[in-house]
Specification:
Helices cover about 35% and strands about 15% of the residues. It is α/β, with parallel strands linked by helices and about 600 residues long.
Amino acid sequence: MNDMKTKVKTIKIKIDDYEITVPEGTTILEAAEKIGINIPTLCYHPNLSLLGACRVCIVEVKGLDAYLTACSTKAWEGMEIKTNSPEIRQARRDIIELILDNHPTDCQTCERCGNCELQNLAYSLGVREKFFEGEKKHFPIDARSKSVIRVPEKCILCGRCVRVCAEVQGVYNLSQHGRGFYTQVMPAHGSAMDDSVCIQCGQCIMVCPVAAFVEQSHTEKVWSALANPKKHVVVQTAPSIRAAIGEGFGLEPGTPATGKMITALRLLGFDAIFDTNFGADLTIVEEATEFVKRLRRKEKLPLLTSCSPGWINFLEKFYPELIPYASTCKSPMSMTSTLAKTYYAEKKGIDPKDIFMVAVMPCVAKKFEADRDEHKSPEGYPYTDAVLTTRELIWMIKCYGIDMKDLPEGDFDNPLGESSGGADIFGTTGGVMEAALRMAYEVLTGSPPEKMEFTEVRAVEGLRESEINIGNFTINVAVANGLTNAKSVLNRVLNGEKEYHIIEIMACPGGCIGGGGQPYPPKGYHFLDPELLAKRAQALYKIDQSKKIRSSNHNLSIQKLYREYLGAPGGERAHQLLHTHYHPRLPRGIR
């Protein structure tokens, strides 16, 4: 059979007197972008389904009396479109003015001030005064969640949060309730986020064009601790933070900023600065040990990675029958925090209760994780006292008048500051798998791999499956990011369609680099932008390649930790401090 390429049918249209040929099925918005015409949008997002709810993208079409929405209308042969005229500009401005009429006027104190799509549209469309002063909707803020706060008065009903929760995460937690003036977006029955099927991933925060969803802030807790002379305040920073924090200070996306970030943290007044990468290396040593043991015994396979707290929440709520297959390893954050209040506290002679442990994470679900009973000491105090998102840390640094991009390079403190390159790539999807394979290869064959890069498992695109030969073993692996992709893999496991040996799942698109606590996308990029995610991932791969030690089990500080304190990997003390358990959690009302 001849390999014939399917010929794409094209159509000719005219946009603002420019003739253009586009593939059949192209929307007006897409066609306009091809010739550099920017049509304003609000509810539209290139990675979500089309809704056409806000009407800001209206255009004129010759022969029709009514305006059409550019985002959801497909062009047809001979279509003549006008994207701008005094009438269109006025209509768009009227739409924005009506939205603003029912919107709070607290821009100066709003989380999204300066990075608000509604604010930017109002400016660009020339809204300079308010013509409509009617009754506003009044809804209380729902701050009952440990991670995600709803601010319904700011909601503009664009539906982006509903769509990302359903289409990207497959959770379907949010929907519109009520009618007309009283419509709200919230979980079923008005439940608190923690009592619903919410997995705390924070993707609703990232995609919201205003600030109808925000993270539960821990900044005041951290300021108070830093100001308390009785507290020894320690901070740890996750791998993906260094790949994204520079964006908040005007650095090009994908610029590694590890050393500058450390210096900024010292200027904020932290007593010790540790690297969550140390915990990532420790996680790999424990998890690879666990995986090899299961592989050799052919039991409890596939092993499911357990570093992503959003994924763990999803597992407990949607796939509780697979909990026995999850790795029992704590996340790198929780391992590092645990050791800070045990190993480090003993070495420094500090009462663990006097240590205030702060974790800087790309993920709002880490706030939920830190408060879980499983991650508290036997005495009942939390190992992690506060979790800051990347956004919160950026604000704190700016609050001190620090311009991070001009700072000198600093170094992490020991004993929890040394890491391998394998730990750095934890921040991007496939990184946990790749780091685990580097060590597992050496354990199974007796020698390290000739090539450290396992590019077969690098999967920014969302889902990747591969067969990897290690010694006498052929290992079936899968890597998924975004929980809709995870569902595809997990359903194959449950249906017996395919046998896997190890599966890495990250709740957020792209992994931690696309976490719900990362900086809002800089100008020229959008949420879920593959180019932005790829640049952040590349920053981590660069750091990995620059390190002499690239496999977690060769980290000298990890080896010393086992000799001095933990004993053997997977041993009794390691299990006591570094492992945990999970349990089914049903939403309130279903329990």
